[in-house]
UniProtKB/TrEMBL annotation:
It is an enzyme of class 6 (ligase). It comes from the Bacteria. Transmembrane segments: none annotated. This is Aspartyl-tRNA(Asn)/glutamyl-tRNA(Gln) amidotransferase subunit A. It comes from Granulicella mallensis. Residues 26-450 form the Amidase domain. GO terms for molecular function: asparaginyl-tRNA synthase (glutamine-hydrolyzing) activity; glutaminyl-tRNA synthase (glutamine-hydrolyzing) activity; transferase activity. Keywords: Ligase, Transferase. InterPro entries: Amidase, Amidase_CS, Amidase_dom, AS_sf. Belongs to the amidase family. Its EC number is 6.3.5.6, 6.3.5.7.
Length: 469
């Protein structure tokens, strides 16, 4: 098995296929072999797509014929199991949906295939995509490839673990409050949560609360995120939130003619932050300063007034519960995970609290609008701490104990506001676990954060590291 192929990014694989240096069949076989070798340890892949190898043979024939090729022609990709894939099991991590096979692809899958990518497999998740770990009663628990005793996060933890372990070069995940960025940070890969609505949610479940849900790419390189996003973005006429027709985005990107203005923030506003994590963010800030950008420590008063996770929780619980009630009606308890049962047991948010949370969300948006009048980018942690053990109910950070849901303290406010963010590794804990940084931009300014991420990638002290499996 070629280690070079296993850890090549999607852009490189597409280039090698296009120049006939390697065939799509060899690429597909290599990744299928890798899945067979390491997935029993990690449990990230839950279904191999029927016809993946046949599709690779068709892709090879197209190359040999000299057909016009898409930018991802012949490249395998994986998809979180909450995203519909035509004629391939999509079971949503739940016994309730065991054996479910959609007739059509989600819009995001359609667009990946149109770019020439080949569906390889589906990846694990918590039931209903709802938890900070990827574990469920149907397909079991996914483990972190860097340490099998640790979590890869949730809810796109199967996707992040598959990519980190070399089972897939590129994939699709979803994000309600953490689920693209947290798992990427846990496992040392990269992910993009674009501005809300830039990529349609059509064909993805659940959709409530739709104003918080995102779908986006996960990969091992920033250029892969940029390439995938360029294929995924744009309205599809079905998702009402996906209405922006801005070509790629309104950001500065690599065409900027001036130093960018970068603010970095660890505390206050996010709760306690692990010291190694804080140091990693400061190191990334110093790296950008060394590259000639204007970098300052900042505070955002809106984050100190309205705690993002609190606003998120009061809003989404009331909006998500009806869907949970409908889906689980008439089902026995042994078909429903702990987190779904926990959600069903929560009291409804009182109307006054809900309205206050709506106004809190507006204040957060206003606060960020004011911030981005002065700065181009905000640099923060992704998570308050590196990965932790499975089923850990509490986290001890700098002498303070927080519930495990506090892992969302730094990510959930970006779902409330709809702002875009990149998650990427920039450090390593003393236990050898990845530590990530989050690069936040203004609305529709994806190219700005992808550009900054690409600069950090070039000077990263942790590039080209892979787990030992």
């Amino acid at each position: 098995m070629s280690t070079e192929l296993i850890y090549s990014d999607a852009t490189k694989l597409a280039e090698l296929i296009r120049t006939r240096e390697i065939s799509p069949v060899e690429v597909m076989k290599t990744h299928l072999d890798r899945i067979e070798a390491v997935n029993p340890k990690v449990n990230a892949i839950v279904t191999i797509a029927d016809g993946a190898l046949e599709s690779a043979k068709e892709a090879e024939a197209a190359v040999l014929r000299g057909d016009e090729l898409g930018p991802l022609h012949g490249v395998p990709f994986t998809v979180k199991d909450s995203i519909d894939t035509a004629n391939v099991l999509t079971q949503r991590g739940s016994p309730i949906f065991k054996g479910r096979t959609p007739e059509t692809d989600a819009t995001s899958v359609v667009r990946m295939k149109k770019a020439g990518a080949i569906l390889l497999a589906k990846t694990n998740l918590p039931e209903f995509s709802y938890w900070i770990e990827s574990d469920n009663l149907l397909t079991g628990r996914t483990k972190n490839p860097w340490n099998l005793e640790m979590t890869p996060g949730g809810s796109s933890g199967g996707e992040s673990a598959a990519i980190a372990a070399g089972m897939s070069p590129l994939g699709l995940g979803t994000d309600l409050g953490i689920s693209l960025r947290g798992p990427a940070a846990h496992t040392g890969i990269v992910s993009l949560k674009a501005t809300h609505g830039r990529v349609p949610m059509t064909g993805i479940w659940p959709r409530e609360p739709r104003r918080f849900w995102h779908v986006g790419p996960m990969a091992r390189s920033i250029r892969d995120l940029s390439l995938a996003f360029s294929q995924l973005a744009g309205p599809d006429g079905q998702d009402g939130y996906s209405s922006s027709a801005i070509p790629f985005d309104a950001g500065i990107g690599s065409s900027n003619k001036r130093p960018l203005r970068v603010g970095w923030l660890v505390e206050p506003g996010f709760g306690p932050i692990d010291r190694e994590t804080a140091s990693t963010v400061e190191a990334a800030a110093e790296a950008l300063k060394g590259l000639g950008h204007i970098v300052e420590s900042v505070r955002i008063p809106a984050l100190e007034r309205d705690f993002g996770l609190d606003v998120f929780s009061r809003l989404h619980v009331l909006e998500m519960k009806p869907g949970f009630v409908k889906t689980t009606a008439g089902r026995s308890e042994d078909e429903i995970s702990y987190m779904a049962r926990f959600m069903l047991g929560l009291p409804d948010t009182p109307a006054a609290d809900y309205i206050d949370a709506v106004q809190g969300a507006e204040r957060l948006k206003d606060g960020y609008a004011e911030y981005f009048q002065k700065y181009d980018v905000l640099l923060t942690p992704v998570l308050p701490t590196p990965s932790f053990k499975h089923d850990q109910a509490e986290l001890l950070i700098n002498g303070q104990t927080i519930g495990a849901m506090g892992i969302m303290n730094i990510t959930s406010h970006l779902n409330v506001t709809g702002l875009p963010a990149v998650s990427m590794r920039f450090g390593t804990s003393k236990e050898g676990m990845p530590i990530g940084v989050q690069i936040v931009g203004s609305w529709q300014a994806e190219s700005t954060i992808l550009y900054i991420a690409s600069l950090l990638e070039q000077v990263s002290p942790v590039s080209d590291l892979h787990p030992n499996l």
